[in-house]
Amino acid sequence: MFERHPTPISEQIPEIPVSPGDAGAAFTLSVASVEWQTLVLWSIIHGAFGAVTYWHTALPLWLLPLLGAPIVAWHASYQHEAIHGHPTRITWLNTLLAGLPLMLWVPYGIYRDSHLKHHRNEFLTDPIEDPESFYVTPGQWAWFSEPRRMIYRAVNTLAGRLVLGPLFVASLFLWREAKGLPGGRGHLKDWVFHAIGLALLAVWSVAVCDMPVWLYVLCFAYPGSGLLLLRSFAEHHAAPDVDDRTAIVEAEAPLALLFLNNNLHVAHHSSPGVPWYALPRYETLRRRMTNGRQERIYHGYREVARRWLFRPKEGPAHPHL
Fold first, then answer.
1. What mean pLDDT is predicted for residues 28-38?
2. Where does the chain have alpha helices with state H?
3. For residue 3, what is the DSSP state?
């Protein structure tokens, strides 16, 4: 659970040649051993979570999910930073800082391992090799019952992804974990660490804040997971060309901060070690150095919603296996 990050951060950030007259020449890709910007972010996220849960009875019920969901999604964005070696170079410390399971259903260690596997770009969107793929194989699709096909079609619309997506991904993940348990220990250490985190979360939210579990699920964990799925909805597409499988969403300021600029997903997959606060500058330089190569670019999540709010983005069966 506390093994050293398999890919050193220095190896995740490539050297990019910049000509002397280039406006991006001032950009440096060096990453500090302790990133104070990210530690401040950690303090803000956990402080906001503590304040909203502690004073939840003083807030109107309709306001709780409007505050709770962004906090949980923001925390998940922070966990994503920790997976890629931030804010320190000490893996076990990053794990402790990111380990509180505000979304409830996924252990941090399993999320870390599966997400690092997802970064094998040559396998992006592959339903067998990419653990974050929403596609299934043509053989699986042929075997599915019609009700199951309806569910897969629904979560391929943005509305379905937001409303049904948290239950869909949590159920699929837990089913796969249960399949892996017989005859082996599976991710036992990760689940033990997760159980400790859940216990700490329960002590705070239930015992200290007197918040019912159902209220936390409905106002924090579930809508927060759905909000995170908004970011990932359009970031990958099935395509024969590896370079065409990842997209950029030029998000407005609030969502860009909420997602810690991971909406600039081409840049993130190009250099996963670049921290969230440097990604916009890195993206500007990256586009300049790719000589205007055509890429999938969406002008904000309003465009994504306009295209696919109630219409499937793609068919569930992967078309290019």
1. 78
2. 9-12, 36-54, 63-83, 91-98, 108-118, 138-143, 146-154, 158-163, 165-180, 188-202, 213-216, 222-232, 253-258, 265-270, 279-289, 301-308
3. P
Look up residue 62 and give its two tokens.
């309709």
CB 107 within 8 A of CB 101: yes
Q: 78, 29, 82: which is closest to 271 by C-alpha? A: 29
Neighbours of 104 (CB within 10 A): 20
Query: For residue 74, which of 111, 48, 50, 39 has the smallest C-alpha distance?
Result: 48
Parallel, antiparallel, or unpaired for β 247-249 and 296-298? parallel
10 Å Cβ neighbour count for 85? 23
Give the tens place of pLDDT for each residue, 279-288: 999 998 888 8
Q: Domains of the chain: which residue ranges?
A: 34-308
CA distances from 287 to 14, 23, 83, 266, 269 (A): 15, 13, 25, 10, 14
Half-sphere exposure of 9 (CA within 13 A, CB side): 21
pLDDT band for 30, please (50, 70, 90 cuts): low
- Give the whole-angstrom CA distance, residue 124 versus residue 68: 31
